[in-house]
Amino acid sequence: MTRRRTAATEEHTAFRRALTAALRGEVRFGAAERTVYSHDASNYRHLPAGVAKPADLDDVRAAMALCREHRVPLVARGAGTSIGGQAIGPGALVLDFRRHLGRVLELDPDRRTARVQPGTVLDDLRAAARPHGLTFGPDPATHSRCTLGGMIGNDSCGSHTLAWGRTSDNLHSLDLLLPDGTELTVGGPTTPAERERLRRLPGRAGELHRALQDLADGNLALLRQGFPQLPRRGSGYALDALLPERGHDLSRALTGTEGTCAVLLGATVRLVAAPAARALVVAGYPDETAAADAVPALLPHRPLTMEGMGADLIAALLAAGRRPPALDRLPAGGGWLFMEVGGDTPAAAEAAARTLAEDARRGHGATVTVLTDPDEQRQLWSVREAGAGIVTRLPPDPSQPEARGGAEAWPGWEDSAVPPERLGSYLRRLRALLAAHGLRGVPYGHFGEGCVHLRIDFPLGRPEGRRTFRRFLEEAADLAVSHGGSLSGEHGDGQARAELLPRMYPPELIALFARFKRIWDPENLLNPGNLVDPRPLDRDLRLAGLPERRLPLVFPYPDDDGSLAKAVHRCVGVATCVDTSTGVMCPSYMATGEERHSTRGRARLLAEMLRGEAVPDGWRSREVHEALDLCLACKGCASDCPVQVDMATYKAEFLYHHYRRRLRPASHYSLGWLPLWLRATALAPRAADRVRRSPALAAALRRAAGIAPERDLPPFPAETFTRWFRRHRATHPADPAAPRLLLWPDTFSDHLEPHIARAAVAVLEHLGYAVEIPDRPVCCGLTWITTGQLTTARRVLRRTVRAVPPDIPVVGLEPSCTTALRDELPALLGRDPAYGDAARDLAARVRTFAETVDRHTAELPALPGSAITQVHCHQHAALGTEADRRVTAALGLDNRVLDSGCCGLAGNFGFERGHYEVSRAAAERVLIPEVRAADPDTLVLADGFSCRTQIAQLADGRRALHLAEVLHRALDTAP
Fold first, then answer.
1. CB under 8 Å to 647, separation ≥6 — which residues?
2. What is the spatial distance between Cα 954 and Cα 925, in angstroms, rounded to a whole number?
3. Three-state SS for 493?
4. Distance CA 172, CA 948 (A)
5. Distance CA 927, CA 846 (A)
6. Which of the residues 516, 787, 848, 941 could staple to 672 if both were Cys, CB 3.0 to 4.6 A apart?
């Protein structure tokens, strides 16, 4: 045994060295990379041998050759959002095509085609096609990050498949690499003469075409009769595409083979004309089954989409966070159809929509809403698109009112499909099957094509969970087949459903599937265990092996039963965090493009750390520390992630345990204790500022404090805000009859930018408030929290709670501090018997400056002009911007809120040594170019100290303003 293990280790080492020498792209065999690529969006976990990120197609060729030489399986991967387990493989080499092979190579608007690389993100292709009035028809909910290679592998669909077909319907040709090194291009339907020519090709290509044609010609009756006919058949190999009447369509037969037959080198895809105008009809019904019953009668209107969902999806959305205003536009009902129509003009689209709406109203008594405004349509579509993430946590069970939240819901039966005319019956029996097994789920999906998405609260973490999982899937498969349906409607089979294929297909077809794969991949190197000779559906579950014992934790994780393991397993791999086009999440991934620096990658590493296998060092893990080191703690994931993975909290928890009773980095003592150091500088501000202005002394200070040498230290004012305020109040007593409020003197406003707090006092007093400040130093503790010094943070917060008088509203100026008071204060002290009630009371009294001013918009003077706003990431995540938008609108400002994400400074992060490049890259993505391009007369608004500092240091000295400064300026210039 030892001799075999040694030989295997030597072979593994030889393979790794050979790959490293042969490939120009990255080759990673470390624990961190293997861990983050051991999951996709499925229930399964498979540790690969390693990961390669090919820089070009020669790298792909070299990797394939070495896999063949060393007998290592190969798994091709795009965005890693496969739900059946197709993008992972045990002991395999994972090829990440998204990292470097993601270009649109050519776009021909006249022929309506485009050549793409395998890692091209769908939205990038659509953006390239948009100026020509074209688009790629299939549009899965993951369109912002899914790749064309992955879409071809799974034959992806999306909401517009009703109009434009599946991925397989939109392909011109595929460029393929076979395991033996053969390269060939296959296309669509061929004539008999062309097929004869292909048979006569020399070498491996001719051999392959002869074998495929013989497979089809020898099994014509089986191929014609063995496949159910329905719009969404996503299970098994599409061997009926090889029939002569279908032109022996090889591109169709290979699409949806889940990387088991060939590796895609590139593709030429077909584009479709996008409607010039669109309108959305939303029809409300008593429940989703009634909506399904209405589908067949409405299909003759030929809508672009016909999506269905029920009230429980809305309940899941509301349980997950703030109520989107778009829900106000939903018509009354307990189930809805979203039907989009198009037209050459807005009037034509609206006319078609109203005709469809009237038919829905008359035919099935639906309540209807017609939306023609593109923004309103996008807002409602965002509800549907978020479904894949939202329903990973079910809404609370009404039968268990004492439960704090809903159960975790898992894939496995998440995209079955039946003929649309049988959808209502199928949904009713599916609901009954769930109830019979004591399970819950939220069905929704592409009702116009009979496809149902459903995540289910399988008890996978309990001993009986696997048995329940298997029994349900077997019975659900029989139910779908009895309705003439398919196990999968668009996600493919993978490990989740391939074992069930014999329930859908006769044994003779199952044997043909194996024969088809052997023709392409006789040595079974490509994604083995998927589709052919599949691994059992209840093996390799990612929840298996997790520790059952409770770890001593600092944060309470109330929505995860106090378990960090449950918290990190919120991540189900839908990969919103690798969408680089919009939002705050995830700035470090946007800067580095590395999976381990995404929210998903970090969640996977933390889960593996808790498991203790690939990452065995627990809280001392270097791999987890390295991944979390570049986490900006921006909290973007707490809002942008559909399941609210809160990596800022997990990072603080990890750093606390990682450095407990150990020496910390210098920046933890300098920036982590910044409030105390700034209090000290306030005793001699001129001397401190002289040190700052001295190049030698400032450089020495940065070195000692662990601060990036590229960073300028902020200037120290001659007088703090609190000192000024006490002088101000002594000469300007507050009106005892005025409503009281306490202005929070955060560290930055007090010690670094007191002019902002002074402006806030002027504005609040103008609005009639009696402004107060605490009579002793207070702090939200954020700098200690972000550096994981949680024991100190608790001490600071206890002192703060004692210092703040009761029964008075507290107004925060700095978004990060305001968020800490609302969120971290009750989280860290909520279970403290002496301080818990007071902490929760204080948190409930905290409001933002804009929320306070928003009550007085009628009293604000006008300040016409233009502005751009950088929203602080903590405000985006926890506080919201609705009040800010109303206040700037009341001023008359033409204000554009930037979709720029995190500024990149993020408190201590951007000042710490080793973080400058990532910090700058995050800022240069959108924020800094926007500020540089802004007209000199355009106001730049940024309430966060970090945001203003980043702008000042990177945007050529441009000064950003706090909302308090803008309002003070309006008051000063008012007649």
1. 599, 602, 603, 628, 631, 633, 637, 638
2. 12
3. coil
4. 50
5. 29
6. 787
Tell me if 82 sits within 8 A of 34, measured CB to CB.
no
- What angle is formed at CA 946 by the lines to CA 941 and CA 947, rounded to 5 degrees? 30
For residue 146, say if its preceding peptide bond is cis, omega within 30 degrees of 0.
Answer: no
Gap between the Cα atoms of 912 and 25, Å rounded: 29
Backbone angles phi, psi at 345, to 5 degrees: -135, 160
Q: Which amino acid is at 167?
A: T
C-alpha R_g of the chain: 30
Q: Residue 13 corresponds to which amino acid?
A: T
Dist CA 598 CA 593 (whole Å): 8
Interval 859-872 mean pLDDT: 96
CA angle 460, 484, 443 (to 5 degrees): 40
Distance CA(181)–CA(64), nearest Å, equals 7
Sign of CA dihedral 941, 945, 950, 956: positive
DSSP-based three-state secondary structure for 193:
helix
Q: Are 358 and 364 in contact (CB under 8 A)?
A: no
- 293 burial type by CB count under 10 A (0-12 exposed, 13-18 middle, 19+ buried): buried
How many CA atoms are closer than 13 Å to the CA of 880, on its beta-carbon side?
Answer: 11
Q: Residue 642 in contact with residue 388, Cβ under 8 Å?
A: yes
* Residues 368, 283 contacting (CB under 8 angstroms): yes
CA neighbor of 586 nearest in space, from 573, 567, 601 = 601
Residue 313 has pLDDT above 90, yes or no: no
Decide: 137 and 170 in contact? Cβ < 8 Å. yes
- How confident is residue 325, by pLDDT bands cut at 50, 70 and 90? confident
Binning the chain into helix, strand and coil, the percentages to the nearest 5 are 50, 15, 40
On the question of pLDDT at 547 being above 70, the answer is no
Q: How many residues does the chain have?
A: 975
For the beta sheet containing 104-108, the strands, ordered from the edge strand earlier in sequence to the opposite edge, are: 104-108, 113-116, 263-270, 171-177, 183-187
Rounded to two decimals, the pTM is 0.94
Please identify which residue in the block is written with the tokens 């033996």.
Answer: 180
Amino acid at 429: R
Report whether 863 contacts 972 (CB < 8 A): no
d(CA 187, CA 180): 21
The DSSP call for residue 650 is H
AA identity, residue 863? L
Q: What is the SS3 assignment for 734?
A: coil
Orientation angle between helical segments 647-658 and 622-629, nearest 10 degrees: 130
**DSSP code of residue 349:** H
Structure tokens at 913: 């040594």
Q: How confident is the model at residue 5 (pLDDT cuts 50, 70, 90)?
A: low
Of 646, 176, 643, nearest to 393 by C-alpha is 643
For the record, the structure tokens of 562 come out as 């106090």
What is the spatial distance between Cα 674 and Cα 290, in angstroms, rounded to a whole number? 60
What is the residue-averaged pLDDT of the chain?
95
CA dist 680 and 593 (Å) reads: 41
At residue 103, the pLDDT reads 98
User: DSSP 3-state assignment of 434?
Assistant: helix
Distance CA 523, CA 739 (A): 80
Return the H-helix or E-strand segment holding 790.
Answer: helix 790-803
Residue 538 confidence (pLDDT): 96
> What is the pLDDT averaged over residues 108-134?
98
